[in-house]
Design a protein that fits this description.
Layout lengths: L1 H28 L7 H12 L3 H9 L13 H22 L4 H15 L5 H22 L6 H12 L7 H8 L3 H12 L3 H19 L4 H7 L5 H12 L3 H8 L2 H10 L3 H8 L1
Helix pairs in contact: 2-3, 2-4, 2-6, 3-6, 4-5, 4-6, 5-6, 5-10, 5-14, 7-8, 8-9, 10-12, 10-13
């Protein structure tokens, strides 16, 4: 049984290597080169730094090569390339300070949405929209102008939203005393450490209410609120509404808008087929 499995894996590896060689040969025959790393890097940096004003210009730069070939079907290839791009956007956003759970929730939503796209042009529009959204999330995290100590503190908070976070633990992660962190944090962010933690927990809760089906009690537990009633109180203070009301008004609205981009008009489809 193990020998058969080994033989199968070796065959699969050989098929993959043959396809790689064939793709390289075809590109050389047609004088094509793969789109450069610099192009990906421009997108990555714009998202990581939360530069929403750069997203459109970055996408308008003429590619210095051709996209990869991930499928022989043209539409499937565009979808696969989109998914690869979303992986890049997600990593850039996390590096820019977006909580992992928020970034991965966005990633999953966009990957599900692209499957409903019916044309290459709609996928391209969705890709730019996704890049902008990830950059906006980085902006919301507000880390790009912080000192090294406060950036370390903010990263620690974002990584520990699912457990109780203390001032002392955050200060230790930042490499400074708790009293100095309190003063420096208030100076750079305009709010106290405890207020920032509360705000970020509610921001995470808003994302889970909007993009997930988790029950409200589970969201409260995931974000380490002392009770569901405490979560409801904190949510009302920050958003002006209860978690249930927020979900009723915002649940999946973002994806409904994005899906509209994926429905290609007859003229778009005809243009691509021609």
């Amino acid at each position: 049984m193990q020998e058969k499995s080994k033989e199968y894996n070796e065959k699969e590896q050989q098929v993959a290597e043959n396809r790689s060689r064939n793709t390289l040969f075809e590109r050389r025959e047609n004088l094509q080169k793969h789109e450069s790393y610099a192009s990906e890097r421009r997108q990555y940096d714009a998202i990581r730094n939360g530069q929403t004003d750069r997203i459109q210009s970055v996408f308008q730069i003429t590619p210095d090569g051709t996209p990869g070939i991930l499928s022989r079907n043209e539409l499937r290839n565009s979808k696969n390339m989109f998914i690869a791009g979303i992986t890049l956007f997600t990593r850039a956003a996390i590096e820019g300070g977006v909580p992992e759970e928020t970034a991965y929730a966005l990633s999953d939503g966009y990957i599900q949405t692209v499957e409903e796209c019916t044309s290459k042009s709609s996928i391209e529009k969705l890709s730019q929209k996704a890049a902008l959204r990830f950059a906006q999330e980085v902006q919301k995290s507000g880390m790009q102008h912080y000192s090294r100590e406060i950036e370390a503190a903010v990263k620690y908070i974002h990584l520990h939203l699912h457990v109780p976070v203390t001032l002392e633990e955050t200060a230790e992660a930042a490499g400074i005393s708790a009293s100095y962190l309190s003063r420096l944090f208030k100076k750079e962010t305009g709010i106290s450490v405890s207020a920032y933690i509360r705000r970020q927990k509610i921001e995470m809760a808003k994302n889970l209410l909007q993009y997930s089906d988790y029950p409200i009690i589970e969201i409260a537990n995931r974000l380490s609120f002392s009770s569901q009633s405490h979560f409801i109180q904190q949510c009302r203070e920050v958003t002006g509404m209860t978690p249930g009301k927020y979900r009723d008004e915002h649940y999946m609205i973002h994806w409904d808008i994005e899906k509209e981009l994926c429905v290609a008009s007859k003229s778009e489809l005809k243009k691509e087929q021609d």
